[in-house]
């Protein structure tokens, strides 16, 4: 048995950890072991999550500097940058359009009972108030604030908060570019140091991933316990009244994952969609277990470079930028959520309002942090922009987490697809890659 377990590839172990976590969570709910779970299981999930977050900043910095420093053609960077932004915008708009089509056809809000609406608004008033106040803070800024915010005044300060990823990217790019612009012999030592640091960080990622089966077990087990709480019947009831909304969102995610990405992958890269999914599945599993694109970054880098054969120059730029601004699952979710709320409150959105929704949802997905529940805050901004009652968020808050797990999988898959496509267009994709990924 032990030998069989040892021979299992790491992704198989992670999958087993996820399954065991779900079963454990259900047993804990049935037998009332939630306190035991809280004290003895959950901490391992938190440790795993923290380890992933811990390496995010050094990983982004070191790999970007290494990627930029090896550039021989500086024009290439601006080309990659433009292509990346263009691709991200286009895929976001496609995702929102898919979401709008599905929600307008299925009309899940019309099936939502009025009595439940008032009840849920009351119950989730506190969490909703938090989202609203953060959203208001975001909204009071000027139009160029996002540019100003990208330039840190103190790099140590920027590096002290994982939400400042764009600031770290900015500093890493100017640092790496400067290295590339200085004659090689003057910065050879620096380049060697960064090569060494890169190897060390990759090793840390590999070591952390060995802990992943235990980490995902603890994360998913605790999630089931927290989500179900003490009242299983109530959770089932909640699922039932939001059933059509969940179905609409999940169908949207599936259209993106099983139709849109395979088409673009087939069209723009030499990879088959099976090769693509076989390589990215470890990143998808971590995204599902952590609900955070930022926490999935180390694995995304690994699978893109060593699974898909994307060069370091492309992956070190596209992926960190992607986890911050490219969120196809999130933008689809925001579109479906906004229209669902409109329908449940009896509003019909005009064409102009739906277009405003596309625009704000695109911008909102850029501003959404790659952390669990990031999208909910931005949904408040979208609702206000089309004149819908922000209180509606309370209706979907209760079920946000399972949908968040799925949309994070979509977000992460979209970033890896973008990396492969952009790499291919720059002749920076060599599939099958020479090295094997850690998973
Ligand atoms: N959890 C998502 C992510 O990290 C963001 C969100 O949609 O809430 O990609």
Structure description:
- The chain has 439 residues and is mainly α.
- The protein has one domain: Proton glutamate symport protein (Orthogonal Bundle), CATH 1.10.3860.10.
- The chain is built from 21 helices and no strands.
- It has helices at residues 2-7, 10-31, 34-69, 74-106, 114-123, 125-139, 145-150, 155-159, 165-181, 184-210, 212-228, 232-241, 243-268, 273-290, 293-308, 312-325, 328-344, 351-367, 374-385, 393-397, 400-425.
Quick structural summary:
The chain has 439 residues and is an all-alpha fold. The protein has helices at residues 2-7, 10-31, 34-69, 74-106, 114-123, 125-139, 145-150, 155-159, 165-181, 184-210, 212-228, 232-241, 243-268, 273-290, 293-308, 312-325, 328-344, 351-367, 374-385, 393-397, 400-425. The chain is globular and about 75 Å long.
Sequence-ordered SSE layout with sheet pairings:
Layout: H1 2-7, H2 10-31, H3 34-69, H4 74-106, H5 114-123, H6 125-139, H7 145-150, H8 155-159, H9 165-181, H10 184-210, H11 212-228, H12 232-241, H13 243-268, H14 273-290, H15 293-308, H16 312-325, H17 328-344, H18 351-367, H19 374-385, H20 393-397, H21 400-425
The structure holds aspartic acid (ASP).
What integer is the average pLDDT?
Answer: 86
Structural class assignment: mainly alpha
In CATH, the topology is named Proton glutamate symport protein
Radius of gyration: 22 Å
Structural shape: globular
Query: What is the percentage of strand-forming residues?
Result: under 5%
How can the largest sheet be summarized?
none
Please count the helical segments.
Answer: 21
Q: What is the H/E string?
A: HHHHHHHHHHHHHHHHHHHHH
Q: What do we call the CATH homologous superfamily?
A: Sodium:dicarboxylate symporter
CATH class: Mainly Alpha
Total beta strand runs: 0
Supply the CATH architecture: Orthogonal Bundle
For the terminal residues, how far apart are their CA atoms? 21 Å
Q: List cofactors, ions and other ligands.
A: aspartic acid
């Amino acid at each position: 048995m032990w030998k069989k377990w040892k021979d299992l590839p790491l992704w198989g172990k992670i999958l087993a950890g996820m399954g065991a976590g779900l079963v454990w969570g259900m047993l804990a709910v049935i037998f009332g072991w939630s306190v035991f779970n809280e004290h003895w299981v959950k901490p391992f999930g938190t440790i795993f999550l923290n380890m992933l977050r811990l390496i995010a900043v050094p990983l982004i910095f070191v790999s970007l500097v290494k990627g930029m420093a090896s550039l021989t053609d500086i024009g290439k960077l601006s080309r990659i940058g433009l292509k990346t932004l263009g691709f991200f915008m286009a895929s976001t708009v496609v995702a929102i359009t898919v979401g709008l089509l599905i929600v307008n056809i299925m009309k899940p809000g019309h099936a939502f009972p009025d009595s439940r609406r008032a009840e849920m608004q009351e119950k989730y008033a506190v969490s909703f108030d938090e989202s609203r106040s953060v959203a208001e803070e975001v909204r009071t800024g000027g139009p160029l604030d996002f540019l100003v915010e990208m330039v840190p005044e103190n790099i140590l300060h920027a590096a002290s908060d994982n939400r400042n990823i764009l600031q770290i990217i900015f500093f890493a790019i100017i640092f790496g570019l400067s290295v590339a612009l200085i004659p090689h012999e003057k910065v050879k030592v620096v380049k060697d140091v960064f090569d060494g640091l890169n190897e060390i960080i990759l090793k840390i990622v590999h070591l952390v991933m060995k802990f992943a089966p235990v980490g995902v077990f603890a994360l998913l087990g605790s999630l089931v316990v927290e989500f179900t709480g003490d009242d299983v019947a109530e959770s089932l009831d909640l699922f039932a009244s939001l059933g059509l909304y969940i179905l609409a969102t999940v169908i949207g995610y599936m259209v993106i994952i099983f139709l849109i990405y395979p088409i673009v992958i087939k069209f723009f890269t030499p990879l088959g969609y099976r090769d693509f999914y076989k390589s990215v599945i470890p990143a998808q599993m971590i995204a599902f277990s952590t609900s955070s694109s930022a926490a999935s970054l180390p694995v995304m880098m690994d699978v893109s470079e060593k699974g898909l054969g994307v060069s370091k120059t492309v992956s070190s730029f596209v992926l960190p930028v992607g986890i911050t601004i490219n969120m196809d699952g999130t933008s689809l979710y925001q579109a479906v959520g906004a229209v669902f709320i409109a329908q449940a409150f009896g509003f019909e959105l005009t064409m102009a309002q739906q277009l405003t929704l596309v625009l704000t949802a695109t911008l909102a997905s850029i501003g959404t942090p790659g952390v669990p529940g990031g999208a909910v805050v931005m949904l408040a901004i979208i609702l206000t922009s089309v004149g819908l009652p922000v209180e509606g968020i309370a209706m979907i808050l209760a079920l946000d987490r399972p949908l968040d797990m799925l949309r994070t999988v979509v977000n992460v898959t979209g970033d890896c697809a973008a990396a492969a496509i952009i790499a291919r267009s720059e002749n920076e994709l060599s599939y099958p890659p020479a090295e094997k990924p850690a998973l």
